[in-house]
């Protein structure tokens, strides 16, 4: 058989009922679009989590006075559901645990800001002067780091909520007190990283500004720097055991969480698994509908063109050649839908807001394309096989 007449017959068949063909194209496009977009978001989120963990450092552990059942951020600006109270002395006591180099008390919360005569509400994060040596994502791009109690350093995206850009060297008023912006952090590259949206102040200054939220020596959390050569997960287990005994807590309801890099990764993987299940379900439904439409299109095209098929048989065309044409028709519908679906899914993924990370998932897309093409061959094979059993004389009498 010559390929040009085959293509001519196929496209003539597809044009026979444009509405039916368009529905088949559309269903395949939607299915591939869903695969490309959702798998890209899933991969983007995974890369985002890995970059966040890398930015925080492998030798850092967060001790937070809350039971964490979902994902957690070591740089969260507020800690809700407090069920265990931590004090500055708890951070000092933690230094007794083997493998801990430093333990930093942290306070964080909302404050009133006045800048260039305009008032705002923002979040501050307060820790000791050298807390920047523990968190890898803290990199000063302009100016310098904190040196005195009246210094503040702002995250790269803080001024997105301000009418005017926060400039190094300018004064800023926080809860009625005047401070100087001495530094601005480099953007972390992670749209979900809290550090980009915080105003950082020295620990004592933060305690004074947030005295109503943290009276006495109460703190929000403790950041631990693990010594080189020690495993952060093992040190995390020792921290948990130490605090349970030291604070006489119930093991089942201890009221705090020790968040290690592995803990963060495991919690994030749980969320990603849910997203992946959603991806599989949605994409599978869309593709099944698409394959059913292709099968229906193939069947109806054969019914509509039985006279032509009968003529071709009378002229000597074999059943296998006719079946091949209709199977190829289904594959062409799939291929056109695949190309449009990949392009549209990728374009939409790339223009998504920065808060929704997207990274084209070539592996998942390739596997899906292979399965879709195999599926299109299967769903066109059976209707072609059944209809092409008709004899030339029966086909020529068909009205």
Structural class: alpha+beta
Shape: elongated
Q: From the alpha-carbon coordinates, what is the Rg to the nearest angstrom?
A: 31 Å
Q: Could you list the spans in which at least 5 consecutive residues all have pLDDT below 50?
A: 70-81
Number of helices in the DSSP assignment: 10
Strands of the largest sheet, in order across it?
Answer: 3-4-9-6-8-7
Largest sheet: 6 strands, mixed, barrel
User: How many E-type strands?
Assistant: 12
Number of domains: 2
Share in β-strands: 15-25%
Mean pLDDT comes to: 82
Question: Share of helix among residues?
Answer: 40-55%
Order of helices and strands: HHEEHEEEEEEEHEEHEHHHHH
Terminal residue distance:
28 Å
Description:
Helix 2 packs antiparallel against helix 9 (362-387), helix 6 packs antiparallel against helix 8 (319-350) and helix 6 runs parallel beside helix 9 (362-387). This protein is of the alpha+beta class and 399 residues long. Mean pLDDT is 82; it is low at 70-81. The protein has ten helices and twelve strands. The chain has two domains: 3-50 and 267-397, no CATH class; 66-255, no CATH class. It has a six-stranded mixed β-barrel.
């Amino acid at each position: 058989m010559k390929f040009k007449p085959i293509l001519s017959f196929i496209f003539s068949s597809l044009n026979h009922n444009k509405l039916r063909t368009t529905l088949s194209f559309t269903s395949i496009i939607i299915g591939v679009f869903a695969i490309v977009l959702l798998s890209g978001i899933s991969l983007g989120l995974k890369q985002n989590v890995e970059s966040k963990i890398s930015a925080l450092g492998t030798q850092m552990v967060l001790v937070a006075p809350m039971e964490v059942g979902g994902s957690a951020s070591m740089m969260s600006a507020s800690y809700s559901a407090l069920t265990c109270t931590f004090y500055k002395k708890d951070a000092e006591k933690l230094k007794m645990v083997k493998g801990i180099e430093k333990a930093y008390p942290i306070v964080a919360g909302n404050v009133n800001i006045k800048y260039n005569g305009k008032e705002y509400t923002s979040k501050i994060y307060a820790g000791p002067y050298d807390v920047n040596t523990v968190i890898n994502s803290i990199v000063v791009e302009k100016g310098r780091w904190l040196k005195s109690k009246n210094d503040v350093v702002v995250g790269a995206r803080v001024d997105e909520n301000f009418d005017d850009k926060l400039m190094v060297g300018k004064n800023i008023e926080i809860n009625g007190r005047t401070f100087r912006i001495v530094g601005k952090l480099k953007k972390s590259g992670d749209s979900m990283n809290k550090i980009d949206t915080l105003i950082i102040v020295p620990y004592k200054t933060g305690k004074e500004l947030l005295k109503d939220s943290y009276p006495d020596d109460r703190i929000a959390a403790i950041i631990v720097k693990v010594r080189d050569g020690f495993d952060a997960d093992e040190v995390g287990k020792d921290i948990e055991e130490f605090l349970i005994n030291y604070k006489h807590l119930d093991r089942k309801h201890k009221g705090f969480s020790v968040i290690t890099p592995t803990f963060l990764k495991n919690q994030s993987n749980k969320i990603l698994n849910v997203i992946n299940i959603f991806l599989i379900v949605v994409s599978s439904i869309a593709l099944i509908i698409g394959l059913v439409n292709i099968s229906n299109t193939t069947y109806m095209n054969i019914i509509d063109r039985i006279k032509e098929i009968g003529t071709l048989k009378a002229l000597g065309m074999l059943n296998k050649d006719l079946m091949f044409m209709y199977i190829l028709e289904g594959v062409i519908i799939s291929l056109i839908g695949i190309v449009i679906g990949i392009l549209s899914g990728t374009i939409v993924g790339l223009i998504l807001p920065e808060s929704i990370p997207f990274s084209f998932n070539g592996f998942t897309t390739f596997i899906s394309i292979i399965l879709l093409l195999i599926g299109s061959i299967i769903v066109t094979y059976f209707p072609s096989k059944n209809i092409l059993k008709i004899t030339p004389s029966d086909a020529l009498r068909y009205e």
